[in-house]
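User: Show me a protein chain along with its predicted structure.
Assistant: Here is one chain, sequence first, then structure tokens.
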Amino acid sequence: MTLSQERTGHPYHMHDAIMAQPQAIARVITEERENIQRLAELVRDSARVHVVGIGTSWHAALIGEDLLRNLGGRQDARAWNSFEFCDRLPALGGDDVVIVLTHRGTKTYSARALERAHESEAATGLLTGVGSDARRELANVVVETSEPDPSSAFTISHTAALTALTMLAFELSGEDSSAALLTLPDAVQSAIATEDSVKNWAAGSRNVQRFYFVGTGPNASTSYEAALKMKEANYTTTEGFHLEQYLHGPFVSTDEGCMVTFVAPPRSGSEDRAADLMRTVSEVGARTAALLESGDDSRGDLVDTVISIPGCPEVFSPIVYLIPLQLFTYWLALELGHNPDVFRLNDPKHVAARRHYTL
């Protein structure tokens, strides 16, 4: 991707997009409610729900599956990577609903997934950017997320899509979510207010060799997304893991050259596996950081760096806790001298490599 007005210093487009998220989320909440209600009717009338996306949108699809199962009551919901959906097309028919997530509507396999679903006579929902190039005529319901993301490191369009999926799950649950949803933009603004702490965190992370992000529940996907943003924007060696999966093999590669970041909002479960892992990682000399709810001193004492997040409903945590990770990605890119907007297409070798594939 190339930008029409490439920037060469702070603020890059990615920073603008991060800062604009409260307003974009507020727009989805107020202006897309009727479309969400229409999409909920399609889901209620279906026997199976497929949520499809690729890249960042696959991470949104994973969170969407969790929301639909655990809040929306749809145990049949399944997240698909767009390529896998097309390559191993499930049996589809009129009692299926396929929800395709696409920022700009231009990715090959997400566009093809929408086409395949339409051809199979499944009901179709489309979550896409305002004015995107997605084929809206193939969708029964279109929900618009945000204005086009100005950076290749998608941020604002991702959290806007997560807001729409959260609204959909609330609608299916029958809960009156109006009051709770109205608090979400302020919660995101409060997360943005951690920027000074995050800048300091990034400034002290220049010499880290490998970055690992871990979380559980829907925030496993938050960890995947944080790792993806790091790779896209600052080119570091980074992986995101489900918290428990990290212990079952990947932990063996952890040493003094690593930083492990825990996405650890309060959880309803009785077993605090995150605290166990914090102690475990510190034992081998790796650096540790954690995103914790303000006042979580017991776990805060177990890590080197704490980013404190004001309390929010657990269902909002994949949105709210992602914001400081977006900011960390951005400020580390600046520390390392990289432009976070350009998908490394200012590197001639990467430009040459693009002739072998299309997205």
